[in-house]
Amino acid sequence: MKERIYRLPESFDDNPSSDVYFHFYVTNKPTTKNKVVFSKNLICFLQQGHKQVHTSNDSATIDEQQLLLLPSGSMLMSERMAKKSQFKSILLFFSDQFLSDFCLKHGIEPSSKTSSTGLVALSKDRFLHHFESSLELLKSLSPGNVLQSIKLEELLLYLLYQYPAKIKAFIQAIITQQPMLRLKQTVQHNIDKNLTVEEIAFLCNMSMSTFKWHFSETFLTSPKKYFTDYKMKRAKRMLISGERPSDIYEQLGYENLSAFSTEFKKHFGISPKQFQLDPIAKVFEPVA
């Protein structure tokens, strides 16, 4: 008989396709070295029992006074019952994309100085005990509810505050193979600095072909169109605020007013001057 492999969170009946997913797990059956494949990263609040995890390069054992952070991947997992003959835990799953967006939103730079295997066991303090209790109050939420994302963000921010080195190393272990995050961070940091696509590719330590491929995978458009759209949105805001075309073209990276006006008209269908004079034009969508 073929040994079963558990794929989580897909194996749960209510598994959603969202980037964040909470599951309240209860069982009265002990397990020994179950083969588990996590498609998402996980924070486990153990409530009753003991959990042991083995990955390719590390292992950890926790009890109900601890929580465990695990990256996605394959592992062997054992669960032992508590005296109450039950194993309980709250499982907070989150995707690499959620973590990448979280890092970008809060300006978090993963730690390259501290190595990590990805497994992080932490003792529950007063905040974490209260946080765990607050999760119990959210059992009725539908899978993928936006409040789950907010709660997870709150937890990660607190853990970063309390254990900056450990959590940054945990994040580093997850994203170390993700060129997309580095690309996003570089683009976000330099988008208003009027750098060329070639210069941004250099800052990403990528060849132009590799940069364009990763850029298209990340932003679902070409670098040229992405930066042009951004410049035009910025130009629109500046013109609405009353700034003159002759005062803003250099800030937007154009060599002269004519080049800016041509691009603006191509994008919106009217010139910058016409745009400022016509209130209705201010709600126009791009024509290209």
Detailed description of the structure:
By secondary structure, this protein is an alpha+beta fold. It folds into 2 domains: 5-175, Sandwich (Jelly Rolls); 180-283, Homeodomain-like (Arc Repressor Mutant, subunit A), CATH 1.10.10.60. 42% of the residues lie in helices and 22% in strands. It has helices at residues 96-106, 126-136, 146-162, 164-175, 179-190, 197-203, 208-219, 223-240, 245-248, 257-268, 272-277; strands at residues 5-8, 20-27, 31-38, 41-48, 50-54, 59-62, 66-70, 73-80, 87-94, 120-123. The strands form 2 sheets. A 5-stranded mixed sheet has the order 1-3-8-5-6, with no helix packed on it. It has a 5-stranded antiparallel sheet with strand order 2-9-4-7-10. The longest helix is centred in the C-terminal third of the chain and has 18 residues, at 223-240. It starts with a strand and ends in an 11-residue tail after the last helix.
How is this fold's topology laid out?
Layout: E1 5-8, E2 20-27, E3 31-38, E4 41-48, E5 50-54, E6 59-62, E7 66-70, E8 73-80, E9 87-94, H1 96-106, E10 120-123, H2 126-136, H3 146-162, H4 164-175, H5 179-190, H6 197-203, H7 208-219, H8 223-240, H9 245-248, H10 257-268, H11 272-277
Parallel strand pairs: 1-3
Antiparallel strand pairs: 2-9, 3-8, 4-7, 4-9, 5-6, 5-8, 7-10
Keywords, please?
elongated, 2 domains, Jelly Rolls, alpha+beta, 288 residues, Arc Repressor Mutant, subunit A, 11 helices, 10 strands
Alpha-carbon distance between the two ends: 59 Å
The CATH first-level class of the largest domain comes to: Mainly Beta
User: Strand count, sense and closure of the main sheet?
Assistant: 5 strands, mixed
Number of separate structural domains: 2
CATH homologous superfamily name of the largest domain?
Regulatory protein AraC
* Approximate strand percentage: 15-25%
The low-confidence parts are: none
Quickly give the CATH architecture of the largest domain.
Sandwich
Shape: elongated
